[in-house]
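Key result, reporting period 2: structure in, sequence out.
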């Protein structure tokens, strides 16, 4: 089932880049979920649900289990916080130093993974189709 969601399971530098991204985003989601459960006075059912979903998706991202689903859930949550759809815990992880660590990890991960097919590098230096003409068959005497 999961094989259909991925084009490859990269190793080497791209795999290390993806591990770095998961190692930053996953624990951030776990910590944010814990703050939802402990940081708000009088948490509602929605707040508890957000906290548990964030913790589960953070664990999934960190260990690389059901990564597309975990990433989607964490991404929807962070989008909801950015758009003010969801409440923000009283103490959240988005101060400057932690954001800088996340950006450092993200930039190293992008450098390790590479530009991808939809980039100027991909256009200029990417895969090329090599056409090998059929060998001409000459009659031997």
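The corresponding designed sequence is given below.
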């Amino acid at each position: 089932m999961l094989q259909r969601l991925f084009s490859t399971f990269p190793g080497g530098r791209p795999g290390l880049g993806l591990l770095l991204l998961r190692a930053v985003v996953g624990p951030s989601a776990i910590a944010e979920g814990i703050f939802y459960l402990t940081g708000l006075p009088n948490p509602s059912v929605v707040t508890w649900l957000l906290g548990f979903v964030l913790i589960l998706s953070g664990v999934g991202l960190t260990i690389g289990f059901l990564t597309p689903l975990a990433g989607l859930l964490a991404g929807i949550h962070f989008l909801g916080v950015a758009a003010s759809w969801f409440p923000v815990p009283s103490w959240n992880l988005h101060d400057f130093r932690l954001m800088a660590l996340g950006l450092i990890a993200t930039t190293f991960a992008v450098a390790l993974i590479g530009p991808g097919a939809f980039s100027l590098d991909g256009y200029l230096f990417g895969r090329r189709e090599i056409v090998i003409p059929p060998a001409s068959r000459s009659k031997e005497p």
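Residues 15-124 form one domain. The helical segments are 12-38, 45-63, 67-82, 96-113, 120-125. This case is discussed further under Risks and Mitigation.
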